[in-house]
Amino acid sequence: xxxxxxxxxxxxxxxxxxxxxxxxxxxxxxxxxxxxxxxxxxxxxxxxxxxxxxxxxxxxxxxxxxxxxxxxxxxxxxxxxxxxxxxxxxxxxxxxxxxxxxxxxxxxxxxxxxxxxxxxxxxxxxxxxxxxxxxxxxxxxxxxxxxxxxxxxxxxxxxxxxxxxxxxxxxxxxxxxxxxxxxxxxxxxxxxxxxxxxxxxxxxxxxxxxxxxxxxxxxxxxxxxxxxxxxxxxxxxxxxxxxxxxxxxxxxxxxxxxxxxxxxxxxxxxxxxxxxxxxxxxxxxxxxxxxxxxxxxxxxxxxxxxxxxxxxxxxxxxxxxxxxxxxxxxxxxxx
Amino acid sequence: xxxxxxxxxxxxxxxxxxxxxxxxxxxxxxxxxxxxxxxxxxxxxxxxxxxxxxxxxxxxxxxxxxxxxxxxxxxxxxxxxxxxxxxxxxxxxxxxxxxxxxxxxxxxxxxxxxxxxxxxxxxxxxxxxxxxxxxxxxxxxxxxxxxxxxxxxxxxxxxxxxxxxxxxxxxxxxxxxxxxxxxxxxxxxxxxxxxxxxxxxxxxxxxxxxxxxxxxxxxxxxxxxxxxxxxxxxxxxxxxxxxxxxxxxxxxxxxxxxxxxxxxxxxx
Lengths: 335, 268
Hints:
The structure holds 2 protein chains of 2 kinds. By secondary structure, chain A is of the alpha/beta class. In chain A, about 35% of the residues lie in helices and about 25% in strands. Chain A has 11 helices and 15 strands. Chain A has helices at about 55-65, 85-90, 110-120, 125-135, 150-160, 180-195, 210-215, 235-240, 255-265, 285-300, 315-320, and strands at about 5, 15-30, 30-40, 45-50, 70-75, 80, 95, 170-175, 200-205, 220-225, 225-230, 245-250, 270, 280, 305-310. In chain A, helix 8 (about 235-240) packs across helix 11. Chain B is mostly helical. Chain B is elongated and about 75 Å long. The model of chain B has no long low-confidence stretch (mean pLDDT about 90). Classes of the chains: A alpha/beta, B mainly alpha. Chains A and B meet through strand 1, helix 2, strand 7, helix 3 and helix 4 of A and helix 1, strand 1, helix 2 and helix 5 of B. Strand 1 of chain A pairs antiparallel with strand 1 (about 10) of chain B, so a sheet runs across the interface.
């Protein structure tokens, strides 16, 4: 492997786009899953696509990874046209899908050797690459175990390792931490940061605001197949406001009255939680929140709980779209 | 557990020289071989039914059907080899359906490799499976007293024919595996389609005693044509036309279904 250099050297041409998409559309029978999305991701950046289930995140990513043909629009990935030169795009990317793309019957090492051989490493070089990756991802001890015996976190790590046989220009990660416990999630976050520091451009989808917040330099928020906002985490939060007051009532029957009081005092629309017993509203400052709470108490409304904090994904959506709810089917989109 | 320094120490690796399509296919074939190692039970599934059939038909029905179990075995064994290969194809369709459900093929499809190589590899695995299963059945036949009159060359020719049959049938189940998401449905559908073909054939009995309408079907049933050719090859005296007729179905299936497979796969 004489043509290798340490991974820590960043890719050249940071200013160039890793991904540049214009008007991408994908339609499934009548549903426009992706409805005209533009995207520009500079090289070496961690870029998050944030949205609820069914927003079109996975469909968008599958198009960019050449797994699905766009019905309209165009895109280049690492300078190669998605439709005209899919083979060149594939040579420059790697994708770790939402469901482990591993062979459960084979061992961790065999999975990596298989992929290394498909990339063109021969015999000993394929095994050496597999062992390097296993070591880097803390899987050396489990190397000869069948993947079916791996934990969720180990699978995820192996799956990401499988995307690094040849260092990709762009790494696509579709909901990399969905279904992982908090420790495994932190592990994957550390791994993603490590790769970005090594110069890999990373496009990830997530339904967790916190994840996008922790990792990504830029975030695109999509819903119903459209991009509804894009910016840094700070910009998005500024648009939403970070001082959200959440209150829970002891008596659900007084919800309407409480909503009216909060709305009058804070002059922002009040959002009801899916279950209906909680209210959320942008308060701006702690002082304003305090006054609003005092109003509730003065009206004799008993609170079972209240808190000030970051907006939830639902609240970001609320602020961005003005839609009161993400709809019944998307209750699970909350972190 | 993960330390980022070890990730950064990981060499940035450029792509080696592009491997050939054949090399890609062989790697997928290697995957099939690894499956034998890790899931040896699958071979058990493949050979148990034909072994039971051989014993049952030879000793229970054989005397009544052909005068003696020994004579019947001589008639039946080439047919059971055809049945084994035809049924085996169902399992690779199930395997494919399982793989597709897990996102494994998304990984393969996002690699810069020959698009059809996963299927070519599947075929390599199938052929190995057919050879192993057929060898086991033949070995049991030999122990029970079966004698291939055409000798080793006849047996080799018969095995080459079995590979061609398995290759042709394989496409049917690859297409089903691509179309159907649940592996058990692939199996049910496969057997629903295969049972009439296998039983309404000349594998178990000479069609001479069947009613005319059934005999008319049995005589043109591709499974019968395959069985006739295989009997001829193993006993000696196979004609060129018998071999040609037996190969019509595998060749036609490959010609129609290989492009269909590619189209379905790329369309997904």
